[in-house]
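REQUEST FORM: STRUCTURE PREDICTION
Request ID: SP-0412
Submitted by: Lab K.M.
Chain count: 1
Length (residues): 308
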Amino acid sequence: MAEREFIARHLAPLATTAAARGLADDAAVWLPPLGRELVFTHDVLAQGVHYLPDDPPGDVAWKLLAVNLSDLAAMAATPAGVLLGLAGPDDQDWRADFAAGLGRALDHFGVALWGGDTVSGLDTTVLGLTAIGWVERGQALGRAGAQPGDALWVSGTIGDAGLGLAVAQGTAPHDKALLNRFRRPTPRLALGAALGGVASAGMDVSDGLLIDAERLAAASGVGLAIALDAVPLSRPATGLDDVLARVTAGDDYELLFSAPTSVDVAALAAPTRTPVTRIGTVTAGSGLSLSHAGKPITTPTRLGWEHP
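STATUS: Completed
RESULT:
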């Protein structure tokens, strides 16, 4: 199938807003909300690195969209549209299923496809997505800004995607909920929007709770004291080693953020229906200090996922 036929048949029906111009032009044209600041993000998913070769193409599409929307959520932004880059083998069935899954994901999150590009004839699949959003002026959340004395919070539960990866690899018993946490993460858009102008710092947990916490601490020029036994887990841990495995696994796409103790974070999060848990405190100094059941724990050498 020629590129223009694939676009016309599978992608043009997803371009449902005026900004996309029916995918008939070389670029999108969007009039942003008056007085808002624009937020841009771009992530790449590569087969064999970010997803398994036998993952369903519809789930791959969901994850591609979700990881980008999670970046917008981490900055308190509301998504508006996305630009797709699809490069890989000329497998028309896979591409059709991917496009159908992308359509379902776009509809679920209320986002439109604005454009992009496709390439065929490669040996493996590499996918890119640029997500564009907006935030009220001065309300964008960033990694810098945490202050000593602030409380440290995380949304949802941690480590599920790592357990889901083991399910997908066939090294753990089948568990649909855990598998979905790996293949179909949920960006915390409503919570992120609620945190704008309230939280002091924030980011999403993409590479592992500890490594991302270290990044937040470095950007803010502070230390973080984390109680590992306070970290929310959806499945009981078998011991400290299991807890450490959960907090160093990636792909959770929860929000990690700090806020002054005067902020009622639980009440703020309640309308978003997103559970939040306090897991520590921002301190003076640098780096991470960990504890479990009130006892200090040596920070592990491996804090999470890092590309070679």
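NOTES: The longest strand covers residues 36-46.
Reviewed by: T.R.
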